[in-house]
Amino acid sequence: MMNPMSKLAARTTMLKKLTFKSLRQRFHYYVPLQFAVSDCFSSTCQLQRLPETRKPGNSRAFFNSQITQRGRQGNLDEARRIFDNMPFRDVISWTAMLTAYADNGDIRKAREVFEQMPKRNAASWNAMISAYARNPNLLYEAYAVFAAMPCKNSVSYGAIITSFARGGMLLQAEEIYLRMPANWRDPIGSNALISAYLRSGEIEKADRVFRGMVYRDVFTWSLMVDGYCKCGRILEARGTFEAMPVKNVVSWTSIIRGYLDIGNLKEGFGLFSLMRMENVSANSTTLSVLLDACSVFGGIREGTQVHGMVIAMGFEQDTFLGNTMIAMYSRIDCIDAARKIFDAMSKKNVVSWNSIITAYVEQDNTEEAYAFFAVMPEKDVVSWTSMVVGFCKRGLTEESISLFELTPEKDEIGWTAIVSGLVRNGENEIACQWFGKMMREGIKPNPVVLSSILSSMAGLAVLKKATPYHVYVVKLGLDSDIFILSSLISMYSKCGNLSQAYQIFSTITASNLVCINSMISAYAQHGLAWEALDLFKWMLEGGYKPNEVTFLGVLTACSRAGLVQEGNHYFKCMRPVFGIDPGPDHYACMVDMLGRAGLLHEALELVNSIPNGPQSSAWGAMLGASGAHSNLDLAQLAAQQLFELEPNKSAPYAVLSKLYATAGLKEDEESVRMRMHSKGVMKNPGCSWITRDGNALSAHA
């Protein structure tokens, strides 16, 4: 027996093949059900008569407006109570009740009201078409109502065009548009078709309809401005905007968003100022667009100014804007400001709670995030996933697994979070097990989780286990994804198959920086420094701009090959030539390079010159170099710094203890051991990996 989803897919495919002639034949039987007024008021129905303080006509209009208002508030029970208790109902009353159900997603009850209506007008029919049009799976029903409608108007055509367009059936939408009386097309029908084209990325077709319109309203112009902006054609968007006879807040917001999306904060905020000078009042959407831009591009000053405007314009208690401001302040590292906004919100929804939880997770304050998570009144899948990510970021993999197992509904994003989090924490075997569970649950992996699982294969370095994942990627048709290709290059390289890594890299038709970086790192890992440097020079000649990851690969190559002069050259040109400030990993790599070459004092000078002070990675490289060259004085200095920076790490204790033992300083060796035990620092057991019959086996010391 065919399952419901297969039936639906079959019906949709059939509908796409139907001509409008066959559609009319298919639905010729549709006859609207008619009910007598008396059927709606049976003798068993006890109606409470409302006090009539107005004339019947005025009273009915008042009740109709109350039904509409309650529907917009989502209070369907109250809307129905008012409807049922009305002494007199007209077609507007019935349509208001139908629309209330439709707007709140209760299509079944909307249809019941429609069928019970003693009389229908065009608005009633259009409301029912629009109700079905909201759901792409109800195209048959939407067209059935449209086909049976005795007197269609432009709104009817616009609704059914929208219905087909949302269902991905542009050809049928176009055919209805062409069958629509020409004098009805503008603006409603044309707007519907333009929206359909823009939703599908067909900007040229949308532009053709736009230019052929006899009459355009402000919505038409705003659609095209927004469409051009989303396609990155900001100059055409600006030209269309300037040509508008009348501009409203929607058109202003669209052009402002267009400039902000490409990072042009100056022009975007300039247009906002011009909008206010034109006496066009901003709405919550306009302000949220500005706040989003400030969070993305780190505009602290501008963000604070917009926050001030939110208060001045009376939007302080707007929940949507409050959530946006929490996200903005958290992204620009103003967590205290985000917390104050959350605490001041009189109405919080699940998005508000998720926003503050995510803010603390991004700040690595998992304890505070969990405190909010524990007391939030309602949790959704985003809430659970945010905490899973938070625990993974802190390395608390057992807690993240336990929380994920408790998650009521696990979606693709949640599975991606747990698998990727385990990989980032080096739990490659466990990550593979959870990936297997994900597959058994029928969750189709996305490029992010596949990239992560390929990285886990690289960590296990077992080629026989890694190869099937490559085959799976090809079967899914994801072998052209940039990040998956990058992971495949890294995977084969770490599994020892550099030739396969290069083969994948060489088959990429349009090279990209991510894959180039992976190949440079692959050469570096295999000690092929000159090949890595040649690839770096090739990418510069090809017009690619290197980033921090590129230089990390280049410096690693120089370090492992002992190319001190070349390494110094590339390190010193990072800031002046490429505008890249060296980070902690770059400094650590340089310290390692100098240390390997025996230039310990030069390495120490570099450590002391690091802006904002050296981090643990630099002192770790210094300790390793000192130990390799048996320089006890420098080793003691580096170890002492690591004791303070990473008091729970056992590595500096182990290295220093070994150096004391080698030097015959038994008392100092014992002192280090005693200090380690008194601090409660535990040494991680050694672990070796061997491959037997294609399986990775671990042996712990």
UniProtKB/TrEMBL annotation:
BP terms from Gene Ontology: RNA modification
Alphabetized Pfam families for the sequence: E_motif (PF20431), PPR (PF01535), PPR_1 (PF12854), PPR_2 (PF13041), PPR_3 (PF13812)
PPR repeat start and end residues: 90-124, 153-187, 217-251, 349-383, 411-445, 512-546
Protein's UniProt keywords contain Repeat: yes
Keyword terms: Repeat
Keyword Repeat: yes
Sample GO molecular function, one term: RNA binding
Protein name: Pentatricopeptide repeat-containing protein
Native source species: Vanilla planifolia
